[in-house]
Each structure stands twice: as structure tokens, then as C-alpha cells.
């Protein structure tokens, strides 16, 4: 049973990747900055992806590594380059980097940092696999179930949101060595929907009212974004401005091909527990 190390394994994405890797029969080692004992079946090691502390030990003896950075972290490019070097130095055969769709979109600095990280990881290991997911359906499932999708951008822009469980299934396949070395793949969801359409479909799926509301950027800063400061706030405001301009869509083809089944829809994700 190959051992795989998943960085950032306590976050939304990392948890999903750990679950999918365990379900595939891989021996999983997750990292966190604190001690974790969650009964998930994964082993845990203390490491900090941002400082690099503990990473070399976390990679020791692993066959594959999932390189994942906390969201909108300003040091992503350098930290991912270091993680790739440490993983290869520890003898890890397969690197999988969690990027984003449109990593060269210059309107969003955090996308550009992922573009830089892709190049840096590939410079260390040309065979690394790069996954480029669109934004997740699960960013909005909780709000939809609570009856309101409130966003600080236009309600009529298209998004091809992707199910995090589907992304994690592909991640686990990549960790298991089932994607060709050097693959870069965009993971868009199966539907292109505006926030207004997401709300309408959520009403149908859940059988109760779900409102779509456009809030101002100022309302976001004073409300949901009040605890987000500095460059992270600037990154998210830049992202909202890009969403306001064009939405965020991505090719849905590769995901269904890799899954070997239709990808999960918004209505299906709403009826499932978040994963
Ligand atoms: N959300 C989306 O729609 C989406 C779409 C495409 C790509 N992505 C990308 O997916 C990646 C993962 O996002 P996520 O939201 O799942 O992760 P996250 O929760 O932002 O971070 C993952 C883990 O990193 C650790 N962490 C947090 N802040 C840190 C810091 N300052 N220094 C060191 N470690 C820190 C935390 O673990 P401990 O506290 O346990 O150490 C956290 O659980 C991001 O790079 C994001 O850009 C997200």
C-alpha cells in the first residue's frame, strides 16, 4: 500500500483529498501545524508548509506527495518550490500540485502565484502532475442551504463550479500514479451557471426559497471579510472584481473523462453532505 503525504490536510481541500486517498486504499499521512488525532485512518505529522518546518520528515518514506498551499497565501510560489525540492530530496517519486484554473489570469495575483508555483514545481520535477480546479461548488452549498447566496459581484456572470469530492477523486488517482507523469489538467464542473441560476436550481433541489443577492464590496469588507486583512483581502477583492467582469468558467471535458462518469452537478452536491 503506497504511502502518500498530503500537505494542508486539515483544510477544506486537504480533508477531501485525505478521504479520497484513504478510500482508494492508499496509506495517508496528513500534515498540520498542530497535533491532530481525528480517527480518520490517516497518520498525522506536524509540519508548516509556509515556513518549511517539518516538511522533510513528513515526506520521508512517502511514494507520492500532494503539494497544497493555504488559500491566498503570499508565499505560495516559493513555498511550493521548497516543498517540491524537499519531497524529491526525501525520495518521493510522484508530486501532485494543487493549482487553479486560469493560473495566468493577471487580474488575480493569487492565480499568478500559482502559475509561478507550477513552473517552480516542474523545474524541480518535470514529471509532476498539476491539477487546475475551478472554484468549488462547496464554497456555496452552505449558503444555499441557509437560503441566501450573497456575493459581492454580478449575479449574471457564468461559473463552472466543480464538486470538491470529484476533484479529490482525481487527486487520489494522481497520487496513486494513475495519471501520466507531466499531466496538467483543468477541472471544470459540468454546468455553466450564474449565481442567479444557482439560487433558482437550489430552490428546486431543496424545495425551499433560496435568494440570490448582490452585496457591495464595502458590505463584504464589513461583514464576511471583516477578519481578512492585508494581501489576502486585496487578493480576494481582485478575485471578486474578476468574477464581476467575466465570472469564472473552465473546460468541463477532462473531469468527466478522468472520473469515467458524469461529474457531480450543483443539485446533486446540495443533496449530498459536503465532502
Ligand atoms: N476554494 C476553492 O474554490 C478553490 C478552488 C481552486 C483552488 N483552491 C486552492 O486550494 C488550496 C487549498 O485551499 P483550502 O481552502 O482547502 O485551504 P486552507 O484551509 O486555506 O489551508 C489549508 C491548511 O493550511 C494551514 N494553514 C492555514 N494558514 C496557514 C498559514 N498562514 N501558514 C501555514 N499553514 C497555514 C491550515 O492547517 P493547520 O492549521 O492544520 O496547519 C489549513 O487547514 C488553496 O491554495 C486554494 O487557492 C481553492
TrEMBL record:
Pfam families: NmrA (PF05368). Signal peptide: none annotated. Residues 3-247 form the NmrA-like domain. Gene3D superfamilies: NAD(P)-binding Rossmann-like Domain. InterPro entries: Ergot_Alk_Oxidoreductase (IPR051604), NAD(P)-bd_dom_sf (IPR036291), NmrA-like (IPR008030). This is NmrA/HSCARG family protein. It comes from Ornithinimicrobium avium.
